[in-house]
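Sequence, please.
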């Protein structure tokens, strides 16, 4: 393959990768929104998917595309290395300055790529009261004509969720942590509770749903995570 054709193909692939990276970024930012924004819009804990993938899975695809873009960019630079060196020498005449600039540029690039592996995130704890207050503050951003009705509805949902959680705590003191990406099979293995019992209590059936994500099951069968927590807590209490 001629070098001109290879350059054209690589440039086209790089452009498609950049377009996909930007598009997925917009998808995650404005469609598959974060949990706090979901509370604001839907007034309840919901899971958002597109093409069967949630925001975290699209984020992983976003990362893979970034790797692909870096790879093709490296190939692009190698193919144009002669031209780049020639232009670089014309821009910076002194050899010592050129070396210093290259070392600084390479160091900054490596730092930007690998710094996430060495830094530590800041951790902040929020108790239930603070979460509730943050939720009420976000509610004020709604349209004023809908604010009162939405606020009453969300307070009712929040109260129901707290009552369910209190019921769970009454049966079992340990923390039951269930995420939307988990399957019934994963929950069963984690807490040693039969899948059959969970499905029976939820009023759902089928073997295939054992491997289906909880977010989808909630949307399909209209149940709350607190109900599963209650089932687990009751089962654990019975076994003790």
């Amino acid at each position: 393959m001629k070098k001109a054709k290879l350059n054209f193909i690589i440039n086209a692939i790089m452009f498609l990768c950049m377009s996909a990276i930007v598009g997925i970024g917009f998808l995650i930012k404005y469609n598959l929104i974060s949990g706090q924004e979901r509370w604001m819009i839907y007034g309840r804990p919901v899971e958002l998917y597109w093409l069967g993938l949630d925001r975290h899975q699209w984020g992983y695809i976003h990362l893979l595309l970034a790797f692909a873009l870096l790879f093709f960019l490296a190939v692009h630079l190698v193919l144009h290395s002669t031209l780049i060196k020639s232009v670089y020498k014309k821009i910076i005449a002194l050899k010592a300055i050129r070396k210093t600039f290259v070392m600084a540029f390479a160091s900054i690039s490596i730092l930007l790529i690998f710094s996430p592996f060495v830094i530590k995130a800041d951790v902040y704890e929020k108790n239930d009261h603070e979460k509730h207050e943050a939720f009420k503050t976000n509610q004020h951003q709604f349209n004023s004509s809908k604010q009162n009705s939405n606020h009453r509805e969300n307070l009712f949902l929040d109260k129901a969720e707290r009552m369910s959680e209190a019921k769970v705590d009454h049966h079992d003191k340990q923390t039951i942590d269930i995420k939307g990406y988990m399957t019934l099979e994963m929950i069963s293995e984690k807490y040693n509770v039969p899948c059959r019992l969970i499905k029976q209590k939820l009023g759902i059936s089928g073997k295939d749903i054992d491997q289906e994500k909880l977010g989808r099951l909630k949307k399909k069968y209209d149940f709350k995570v607190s109900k599963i927590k209650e089932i687990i807590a009751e089962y654990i209490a019975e076994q003790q």
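The CA atoms of residues 118 and 154 lie 40 Å apart.
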